[in-house]
Structures are given as C-alpha cells and as structure tokens.
Amino acid sequence: MNFKPADMGANIVMVESVGGSLMFRDECQDRADLHLSSRFIQYLDLMEGYGRNKELAEEFRHKVLKM
After folding, report:
1. Contact predicate 45/32, CB 8 Å
2. Residue-by-residue DSSP string for 6-61
3. What is the end-to-end Cα distance of the chain in Å, rounded?
4. Residue 2: is its pLDDT beyond 80?
5. Taking CA atoms, which of 5, 16, 40, 42 is between 20 and 30 Å from 48?
6. pLDDT computed for residue 53 by the predictor
C-alpha cells in the first residue's frame, strides 16, 4: 500500500465502521478481497478525530480528494 515510515505517532490507524459507512466502500487496487471505506468517509473520520487529525484531514482533502 506504499506506506511511508512515521517519525512520531502512528503511520496507519484502523477504524471499525458500521452502519451507513459500509455502504460507501472502495476496493484496494492491490487486493481485490480487501474493501476500505470510501475516501470521503475516511476524511470525515479524520475530521471527527483528535490530536493532529484535523491537520491530516486538511492534507487528505487537498492531496487525495483534490478539493
């Protein structure tokens, strides 16, 4: 998945989602059997988070969502 090492904190965080968020899924390009939440749901999860999550959400919005 091309993750880069993190200097501090977590490099990746798994968030268990239920309900409506499961209706909007993306498939992993490298693994057809792996389903991820949509990029928009990931953005919303970051916005609800704590710590640097709002900063990461801003970067995610620009680089991934291209907004």
Report:
1. no
2. -SSS-S-------GGGGGSEEE-SS-TT-EEE-HHHHHHHHHH--TTHHHHHHHHH
3. 23
4. no
5. 5
6. 85
DSSP structure class, residue 62: H
Query: Torsions phi, psi of 15, nearest 5?
Result: -120, 120
Residue in this structure with the two tokens 């999550």, named with its chain if needed: 53
Claim: this prediction has a pTM higher than 0.90: no
Do 38 and 65 touch, CB atoms closer than 8 A?
no
Angle at which helices 39-48 and 53-63 pack, to 10 degrees? Answer: 160
Q: Are strands 35-37 and 25-27 parallel, antiparallel or unpaired?
A: antiparallel
**Alpha-carbon gap, residue 15 to 30, rounded angstroms:** 20
The single-letter code of the amino acid at 33 is: D
